[in-house]
């Protein structure tokens, strides 16, 4: 079948602002949007720029806006889109564009780093064995540890759109990952970091993050657990 | 632009990040990667990482070493294998201490499960008694690589490691057998950067992208291995390329051995569990080379299942495992089956085919990760390699599942330690000439040359023919045909025209540079395969079906000579305590 794409293009060496370009390719319903972008790049226009690597939803490189929704190109199949209409592809919103679908992710990564995304435990561990953790405690982390840092959630959030300083759902999810780790000793330190006007309280439970998460992480629930923990601390 | 660092590590997967964590703060260290670190291919590893922790049942590092040696079809160097298996429990405990989230046992210890080729003697008193599967693979659901990569990156953030993300390696600077740094292209600007260093480590990963059906990421183009080969240094055991038996049909996306470790069964068109025939004791948990050959043999014997596009596949049956096991133990891979093939694994079989997965061969190193420049074991001063790009050799002719993640953390750390020792006495050595000149002229040529060839067309032909002629089963005619095709691709490469003439994020230029690397690596694999007239591990010659220890118990070293032609040399296999036996499961 013939499928039409409308892709947002921006070449900083030539353009003052982004513009649209239409492409039509022969495609089948089992193809992913990434397959289609490759087909366009490899057969029609080599200059089309986008990031990608693993092509099956683990590396988190190819988050983009597809028909108005933040998704991974490699995990979105044509059969799940309406191919009778033109498929519209834009970069994720709210981050500066480097070229075409490639964004400058610096701000996103800085916010990730702000929550101290590493285990902090100053008690020396057992010399030759693991720290014990119940499977129940381990499983509290698994959903949050699935995060692939694709930025689909943070850039889907209206609070991010209206305030550049909002730390965003991805960083909050990472904070949860460590605050709720039974092996970690820096929960208070991290709660102080997120218990700020541009921190967790900018989350207004809009649920966009859940809808956009390609790993189906219930991000809002995790954020609510953090809010509870902060509230409990204040009591 | 010139940067100066005591250590430059290329590659931010498991090996590169583990090495970076090891470098003490008093030395400056930069990690260069062509993708942001957490995008590295380590993250796609699923099933686990083996260590004889004995958390679930009695086990020993010697059992692990025996399995690894046997799995390698006796080509692995036994001194290095002993080091890896003995160090494995410490390495896993260390990851746990770093914060890696693991699935746990009832007692709160790291959970372990069965995995292909990992066994123990039925009678612990008799190491040569019948081998039975053992729970040795430490895991975090089926996202072990993902959480390992995240944990290592998190520890690098903690240690404030300097990263140069989205820099593409173009050259290695070696003068008078001293490694002085690397040249890389900043993908965002196309600016050429020289990294002047006292020590360089390659942790640049594998090259599955020489094949059409592969589990490897698009970035898996073996740039480090190719640049070593282009620099006139040897590559080792390149003919040994592992096909993982269970890739999703047509796509090659990995379906971990964990699926069979949890009880999944391979079935042919008659619904027969055919692995019983090929490996009567361990059946579906036989090593990967054997299972891949069994699958192709079933298809060749007319017992494959005909797919909608005219190609054949085999079924992986998980339906009897129940939803609980599927959702808790292998959620990610069953999710892939749903997303990409529209198959519901709790009710239907998953269509699979073997997929190009892992390079056992690569840059030859000793067990301290120092890169060898010849078969006598001499090293290049200041040059190290670890991970899939390296050949220590712990995997020999066939790698066991889970041993790749282990290799990354054991040898990544050893590399970090060896470099730290080296830095105590070494100094910066000045360049004799401008090291960026070669990169500059190669890029100028690519950006200005005209012709009617496209990168994607040549790459597709190379990948399809490598699959067909130099894949799971090989023979002299096919390999010779491939050799001449590679010569043609080299010619045609000079007629590629690059559409994108810009400097910002020119990924077409990067793909063109990667294609050159793929062509060189295909040559090294194919030529080594043509040369080895026996069958061992993953290298299966239809015209020489037997293993021939008398003649071939040796590592292949392939080097480009001054005319650019491949030349073969050999290095003996190191044997410690395990005598070669027939490899039966």
Structure description:
Chain A has about 240 residues and is of the alpha+beta class. Chain A folds into 2 domains: about 1-105, Ubiquitin-like (UB roll), CATH 3.10.20.30; about 105-235, Fumarate Reductase Iron-sulfur Protein, Chain B, domain 2, CATH 1.10.1060.10. Chain A has helices at about 35-45, 105-115, 135-145, 160, 170-180, 185-195, 210, 220-235, and strands at about 1-10, 20-25, 65, 70, 85-90, 95-100, 100-105. In chain A, a hairpin with a 2-residue loop joins strand 3 (about 65) and strand 4. In chain A, helix 2 packs parallel to helix 5, helix 3 (about 135-145) packs antiparallel against helix 5 and helix 5 (about 170-180) crosses helix 8 (about 220-235). The model of chain A has no long low-confidence stretch (mean pLDDT about 95). In chain B, helix 3 (about 80-100) crosses helix 11 and helix 13 packs antiparallel against helix 14. The mean pLDDT of chain B is about 95. Among the domains of chain B are: about 245-355, Succinate dehydrogenase/fumarate reductase flavoprotein, catalytic domain (Flavocytochrome C3, Chain A, domain 1), CATH 3.90.700.10; about 435-555, Fumarate reductase/succinate dehydrogenase flavoprotein-like, C-terminal domain (Methane Monooxygenase Hydroxylase, Chain G, domain 1, Up-down Bundle). Chain B is globular. Chain B is about 35% helix and about 20% strand. In chain B, strands 1, 2, 8, 9, 10, 11, 19 and 20 form an 8-stranded mixed β-sheet that branches. At the A-B interface, helix 1 and helix 3 of A face helix 3, helix 4 and helix 10 of B.
Question: Topology, please?
Answer:
The complex is a heterodimer of chains A (235) and B (585).
Chain A: E1 2-9, E2 19-26, H1 33-44, E3 63-66, E4 69-72, E5 87-90, E6 97-99, E7 102-103, H2 106-114, H3 135-145, H4 158-162, H5 169-179, H6 187-194, H7 208-212, H8 219-234
Parallel strand pairs in A: 1-5
Antiparallel strand pairs in A: 1-2, 3-4, 3-5, 6-7
Helix pairs in contact in A: 2-5, 3-5, 5-6, 5-8
Chain B: E1 2-10, H1 14-22, E2 29-33, E3 49-50, H2 61-71, H3 78-98, E4 112-113, E5 119-121, E6 131-133, E7 137-138, H4 144-158, E8 162-165, E9 167-175, E10 178-186, E11 191-202, H5 223-230, E12 235-236, E13 241-248, H6 258-261, E14 265-267, H7 275-278, H8 288-303, E15 305-306, E16 312-317, H9 322-329, H10 331-341, E17 350-359, E18 363-364, E19 370-372, E20 379-385, E21 390-391, H11 403-423, H12 437-448, H13 455-469, E22 473-474, H14 476-493, H15 507-531, E23 540-541, H16 549-552, E24 554-560, E25 566-572
Parallel strand pairs in B: 1-2, 1-11, 2-8, 11-20, 18-21, 22-23
Antiparallel strand pairs in B: 3-7, 4-7, 5-6, 9-10, 10-11, 12-24, 13-17, 14-16, 15-16, 16-17, 19-20, 24-25
Helix pairs in contact in B: 1-4, 1-11, 2-3, 3-11, 5-15, 13-14, 13-15, 14-15
């Amino acid at each position: 079948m013939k499928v039409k794409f409308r892709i947002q293009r921006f070449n900083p060496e030539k353009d003052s602002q982004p513009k649209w370009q239409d492409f039509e390719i022969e495609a089948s319903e089992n193809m992913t949007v990434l397959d289609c972008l490759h087909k366009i790049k490899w057969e029609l226009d080599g200059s089309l720029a986008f990031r990608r690597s693993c092509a099956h939803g683990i590396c988190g490189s190819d988050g983009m806006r597809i028909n108005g929704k933040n998704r991974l190109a490699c995990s979105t199949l044509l059969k799940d889109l309406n191919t009778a209409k033109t498929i519209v592809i834009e970069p994720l919103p709210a981050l500066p564009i480097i070229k075409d679908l490639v964004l400058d992710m610096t701000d996103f990564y800085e916010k990730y780093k702000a929550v101290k995304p590493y285990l902090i435990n100053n008690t020396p561990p057992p010399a030759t064995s693991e720290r014990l953790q119940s499977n129940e405690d381990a499983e509290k982390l698994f959903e949050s540890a699935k995060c692939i840092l694709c930025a689909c959630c943070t850039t889907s959030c209206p609070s991010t759109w209206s305030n550049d300083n909002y730390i965003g759902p991805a960083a909050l999810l990472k904070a949860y990952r460590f605050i709720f780790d039974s092996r970690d000793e820096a929960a208070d330190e991290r709660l102080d970091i997120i218990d700020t006007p541009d921190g967790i309280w900018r989350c207004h439970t809009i649920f966009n993050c859940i809808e956009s998460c390609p790993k189906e992480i219930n991000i809002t629930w995790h954020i609510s657990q953090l809010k509870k923990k902060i509230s409990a601390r204040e009591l | 632009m010139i940067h100066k660092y005591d250590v430059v590590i290329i590659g931010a997967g498991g090996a590169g990040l583990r090495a970076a964590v090891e470098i003490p703060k008093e030395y400056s260290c930069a990690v260069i990667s062509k993708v942001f670190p957490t995008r590295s291919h380590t993250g796609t590893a699923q099933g686990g990482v083996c260590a004889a922790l004995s958390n679930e049942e009695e086990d020993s590092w010697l059992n692990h070493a025996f399995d690894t040696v046997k799995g390698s079809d006796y080509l692995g160097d036994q001194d290095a294998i002993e080091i890896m298996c003995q160090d494995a429990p410490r390495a896993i405990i260390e990851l746990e201490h770093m914060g890696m989230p693991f699935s746990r046992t009832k007692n709160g210890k790291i959970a372990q499960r069965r995995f292909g080729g990992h066994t123990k003697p039925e009678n612990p008193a008799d190491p040569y008694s019948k081998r039975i599967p053992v729970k040795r693979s430490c895991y975090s659901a089926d996202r072990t690589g993902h959480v390992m990569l995240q944990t290592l990156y998190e520890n690098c953030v903690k240690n404030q490691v300097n990263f140069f993300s989205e820099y593409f390696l173009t050259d290695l600077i070696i003068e008078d057998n001293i490694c002085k740094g690397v040249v890389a292209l900043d993908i965002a600007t196309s600016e050429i950067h020289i990294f002047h260093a006292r020590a360089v480590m390659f942790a640049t990963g594998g090259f599955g992208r020489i094949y059409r059906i592969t589990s490897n990421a698009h970035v898996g183009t073996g740039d480090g291995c190719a640049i070593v080969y282009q620099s006139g240094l040897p590559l080792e055991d390149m003919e040994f390329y592992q096909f993982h038996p269970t890739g999703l049909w047509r796509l090659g996306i990995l379906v971990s051995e964990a699926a069979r470790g949890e009880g999944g069964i391979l079935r042919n068109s008659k619904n027969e569990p055919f692995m019983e025939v090929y490996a009567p004791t361990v059946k579906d948990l036989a090593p990967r080379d054997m299972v891949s050959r069994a699958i192709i043999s079933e298809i060749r014997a007319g017992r494959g299942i005909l797919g909608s596009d005219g190609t054949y596949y085999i079924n992986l049956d998980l339906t009897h495992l129940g939803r609980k096991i599927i959702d808790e133990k292998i959620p990610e891979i069953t999710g892939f089956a749903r997303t990409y093939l529209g198959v519901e694994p709790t009710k239907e079989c998953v269509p699979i085919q073997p997929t190009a997965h892992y390079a056992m061969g690569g840059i030859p190193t000793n067990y301290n990760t120092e890169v060898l420049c010849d078969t006598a074991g001499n090293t290049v001063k200041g040059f190290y390699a670890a991970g899939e790009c390296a050949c220590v050799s712990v995997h020999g002719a066939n790698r066991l599942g889970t041993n790749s993640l282990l290799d990354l953390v054991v040898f990544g750390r050893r590399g970090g330690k060896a470099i730290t020792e080296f830095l105590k006495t070494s100094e910066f050595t000045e360049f004799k000439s401008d090291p960026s000149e070669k990169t500059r002229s190669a890029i100028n040529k690519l950006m200005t040359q005209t012709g009617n060839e496209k990168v994607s067309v040549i790459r597709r032909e190379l990948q399809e023919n490598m699959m067909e002629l130099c894949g799971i089963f090989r023979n002299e005619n096919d390999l010779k045909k491939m050799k001449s095709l590679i010569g043609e691709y080299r010619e045609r490469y000079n007629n590629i025209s690059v559409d994108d003439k810009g400097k910002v994020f020119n990924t077409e230029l990067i793909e063109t540079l990667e294609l050159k690397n793929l062509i060189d690596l295909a040559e090294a694999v194919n030529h080594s395969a043509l040369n080895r007239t026996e069958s061992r591990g993953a290298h299966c010659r239809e015209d020489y079906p037997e293993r021939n220890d008398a003649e071939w118990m040796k590592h292949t070293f392939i080097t480009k000579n001054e005319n650019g032609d491949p030349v073969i040399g050999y290095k003996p296999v190191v044997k410690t305590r395990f005598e070669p036996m027939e490899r039966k499961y």
